[in-house]
């Protein structure tokens, strides 16, 4: 099964479908996610697309953890970075090459996602192509927005 479509904006639809209010639709999408059997090539494509970054915005914490765990269990890299081969997607925020899900969630102040990523082995010392760590993004966001959520993210990343 070629999962190249998972490395495109369709993943946003698939996750949204899995969170749908319509119970039968939600169940079908979650079952589909459960039984997908990615090949080694599929996992390489997903790693190149920094696929964990598409999972962490998931509003359902159980679904988020299940998807990330499944990604890792299938050979996915929790520290996958976006690459020039897969530039920023139209439905995603602009990404600097070398950003991981941890960088993006630190920038967004997504405390629960940062906790989960760290628990699953995300490397908080990784730097983007511009030399920034996830902590650097959280510090700049705190200075700009002065929101309390960044205090916890900064504490977690120090």
* Fourth-level CATH superfamily: Ankyrin repeat-containing domain
CATH class: Mainly Alpha
| Ends distance | 41 Å
- What is the average of the pLDDT values? 78
Q: Count the E strands.
A: 0
The CATH architecture assignment turns out to be Alpha Horseshoe
Major sheet size, sense and barrel closure: none
Task: Tell me what the structure shows.
There is one protein chain. With 158 residues, this protein is mainly alpha-helical. It has one domain (10-157): Ankyrin repeat-containing domain (Serine Threonine Protein Phosphatase 5, Tetratricopeptide repeat, Alpha Horseshoe), CATH 1.25.40.20. The protein contains 9 helices and no strands. It has helices spanning 10-18, 23-35, 40-48, 52-55, 61-73, 101-108, 111-119, 134-145, 149-157. Helix 6 (101-108) packs antiparallel against helix 7 (111-119) and helix 6 runs parallel beside helix 8 (134-145). The N and C termini lie far apart (41 Å). Residues 1-9 and 86-93 have low confidence and may be disordered. This is Ankyrin repeat domain-containing protein. Keywords: ANK repeat. ANK repeats lie at residues 97-129.
Features:
mainly alpha; 158 residues; Ankyrin repeat domain-containing protein; globular; Serine Threonine Protein Phosphatase 5, Tetratricopeptide repeat; Ankyrin_rpt; Ankyrin_rpt-contain_sf; single chain; ANK repeat
Task: Provide a compact summary of the structure.
By secondary structure, the protein is an all-alpha fold. It is 54% helix and 0% strand. The chain has one domain (10-157): Ankyrin repeat-containing domain (Serine Threonine Protein Phosphatase 5, Tetratricopeptide repeat), CATH 1.25.40.20.
């Amino acid at each position: 099964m070629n999962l190249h479509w998972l490395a495109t904006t369709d993943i946003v639809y698939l996750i949204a479908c899995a969170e749908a209010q319509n119970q039968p639709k939600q169940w079908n999408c979650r079952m589909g996610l459960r039984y997908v059997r990615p090949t080694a090539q599929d996992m390489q494509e997903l790693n190149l697309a920094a696929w964990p970054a598409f999972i962490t915005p998931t509003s359902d914490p159980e679904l988020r953890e299940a998807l990330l765990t499944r990604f890792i269990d299938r050979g996915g890299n929790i520290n996958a970075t976006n690459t020039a081969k897969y530039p920023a997607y139209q439905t995603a925020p602009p990404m600097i090459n070398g950003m991981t899900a941890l960088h993006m969630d630190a920038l967004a102040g997504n405390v629960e996602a940062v906790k989960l990523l760290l628990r699953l082995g995300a490397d908080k010392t990784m730097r983007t192509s511009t030399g920034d760590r996830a902590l650097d993004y959280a510090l700049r966001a705190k200075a700009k927005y002065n929101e309390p959520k960044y205090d916890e993210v900064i504490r977690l990343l120090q």
